[in-house]
Amino acid sequence: MEKRRKDQYYRLARIRGYRSRSAYKLQQAIRTYRLISPGHKVVDLGAQPGGWLQVAREVIGPEGLVLGIDIKQIAPLPAGNIRLLKMDVYAEGIADRIIAELNGPADTVLSDLAPSIIGAWDVDHARQVDLARRALEIAEKVLDHKGNALIKLFHGPELKKVQDDAALLFEKSRLLKPKASRPESSEIYFLGLGFKAKWYHPTAKVAD
Ligand SMILES: C[S@@+](CC[C@H](N)C(=O)[O-])C[C@H]1O[C@@H](n2cnc3c(N)ncnc32)[C@H](O)[C@@H]1O
User: Fold this and answer.
1) Higher pLDDT, 121 or 57
2) What is the pLDDT, as a whole number, of residue 122?
3) Nearest one of 45, 39, 2, 1 to 26, comparing CA atoms
4) 72, exposed or middle or buried, with CB in 10 Å at 0-12, 13-18, 19+?
5) pLDDT at site 208
6) pLDDT score of 200
7) Which atom of ligand 1 is nearest to the CA of 134?
8) Is 85 a pocket residue for ligand 1 (Cβ < 6 Å)?
9) What is the distance in A from the centroid of ligand 1 to the CA of 89?
10) Of 51, 93, 94, 124, which residue is least crowded by CB atoms under 10 Å?
């Protein structure tokens, strides 16, 4: 608790009404790389309690749409263009559901998905890598051409391989450690800009 109270981002989040200090990680990434713009459609995987949703909503403005998905219930947020879905990202048909909720492809896929940490480093790393790969699978199905992605990873033996695989999908990519990410944390984010594939989703029912 004491450590938390001294943390500037924790205090700022409380003052400014953000639901998580993580909000500042996304804010810093957007300020540097503009991965979200006004009017964008955004899906946020692992969105509870909702700090990233709040930041994404500030950037997309009233014309955009953000969909937050988590296995845990997310308490409602006041803006009308924030949709919430209680769902496991491993659920079958999740890509179709995202496309239906957004009424089309996403401009940006965010993933701050994280497993419950058990403290056994190799297990935690393996589970995080699996969640990141799942986020990438979903991104491949729902991202629009030229879309962007920000996906949480942990340092470890699989990091380079996931990064290399993910990099193939985007025109530009890099690993990112926002200032708000605690230096002692092994988390790091994969940033992909400019999804290369043309959006094609044969099973999606998109309204005119
Ligand atoms: C670090 S938190 C996200 C914090 C969020 N970005 C924010 O700013 O409020 C990670 C989230 O991933 C979610 N999560 C983990 N595994 C999941 C799964 N299989 N399906 C959906 N959500 C999952 C957890 O429930 C947790 O809420």
Assistant:
1) 57
2) 86
3) 45
4) exposed
5) 53
6) 73
7) 19
8) no
9) 10
10) 93
Helix (H) or strand (E) holding 26: helix 23-33
pTM, 2 dp: 0.94
- Residues with catalytic function: 152
Decide whether any atom of ligand 1 lies within 6 Å of the 185 Cβ: no
Domains of the chain: which residue ranges? Answer: 24-195
Q: Which amino acid is at 101?
A: E
- Where are the extended beta strands (E) located within 65-165? 65-70, 82-86, 106-111, 143-154
Is any atom of ligand 1 closer than 6 Å to the C-beta of 68?
A: no
Domain 24-195 = CATH 3.40.50.150: yes
pLDDT above 70 coverage of the chain, percent: 94
Residue 71 C-alpha to ligand 1 middle, in angstroms? Answer: 7
CA dihedral sign of residues 126, 152, 71, 99: negative
- Higher pLDDT among residues 70 and 184, named by residue: 70
Ligand 1 centroid – CA 50 distance (Å): 9
How many other CB atoms are there within 10 angstroms of residue 104's CB atom? 17
Q: What is the pLDDT of residues 93-152, one digit of tens each?
A: 999 999 999 999 999 999 999 999 888 888 888 999 999 999 999 999 999 999 999 999
